């Protein structure tokens, strides 16, 4: 009997799951084994901050049920920890519910992700009276934070980056917190939340919005110790807290790779094919580092998973495409986007260099900056610009030429040829609806024509809405249009 290639994926998170899906879509003859150390099947980790608001259950973030994986002949194992990897012998030792087992492999994929970073000052031995200190990295973290928040009088969130702002906003809106009059404080060492992605004026707008949501914003704050009843800051101020949620960055999980002799720096070092220093060993997602930079966000992690699957199954190699990334803040009160080389300022201009257009209306909570070079958007910041954020980030993502009237583009006037999100009937087929998964309107139309008539069915066929989830309303609108009488006739014209 001929040998079947076996691929073992170490890590059962979103990137590991995507790699398994992509492998199966390319080959029916590859044996695929996913080893996840969590007790849950793969789930949408991006939605965990949303779950803190109490609007969805953490269990509802699961990507696929067990039957889905079984039907595709993917051996997805939970509660399984890899103990040791022998790259030369092509085997590993795993400890799972059935005990220890040695597994052979032809290819191994590291998708071990990252863990929350806790500054040394934020340690607690759970002493009586001291706050509970938690991170938010996995589903069990989310469930622990929710359980602790239900009884907390004061909650402190450390770190005002994207995730920190989302955590504070979600907890402040959670009825189990708000209805008891519990206080939520957001502590950030910078001058404004998301200062590394926004800059002064848009950061100040976001800061005001955070305060308007009933969150106590403490800037320039560095916790120097945990005391009874709260945190002590570097300036001597005391912040009361029964629960501390830390969002101070992450560290790649590289111990297994390092123990196997694979090159590791801040992450597992990969080349443009996502190959590591060891033959037949690959890495993707938050555990990986490419050209000195950790992966960091979901979309490039998914792309790396696809590249790994392609390079395992195909003869012609494929390289990482370096897709451009926009950072979006998911809070109901304010739409915030930052992308590309946003930090270029108007007076940095020089002949042949980037051109910067700024529209600033802080009183109305609106700010827009566009950085254009060689006729294309290379960076920008949009705060409170709900009408144009979709169209502008779409133009940045696609690399399409920007209109000459940049101010009109920011205001969404017709003279720019860019407005808000177009109506489904007017939307071109190549329009990207789901940025996380690069799902176009054409793909949604095809899925609908194949019988996918609701969001879960469309998500199963196209993966739309399975990333950050912000495209759900657009997908629902397109499905409603397709369901309407005569929509299919109009669709053939629009695409």
From TrEMBL:
Record-annotated BFD-like [2Fe-2S]-binding domain positions: 433-479
Pfam families with a match to the protein in the record: Fer2_BFD, Pyr_redox_2
Superkingdom, taxonomy of origin: Bacteria
Keywords: FAD, Flavoprotein
Cofactor(s) essential for the protein: FAD
Residue ranges annotated for the FAD/NAD(P)-binding domain, each copy included: 6-299
GO molecular function terms listed in the Swiss-Prot or TrEMBL record: oxidoreductase activity
PANTHER family reported for this sequence: NITRITE REDUCTASE [NAD(P)H], PYRIDINE NUCLEOTIDE-DISULFIDE OXIDOREDUCTASE DOMAIN-CONTAINING
Protein name, entry field: FAD-dependent oxidoreductase
Organism expressing this protein natively: Dietzia timorensis
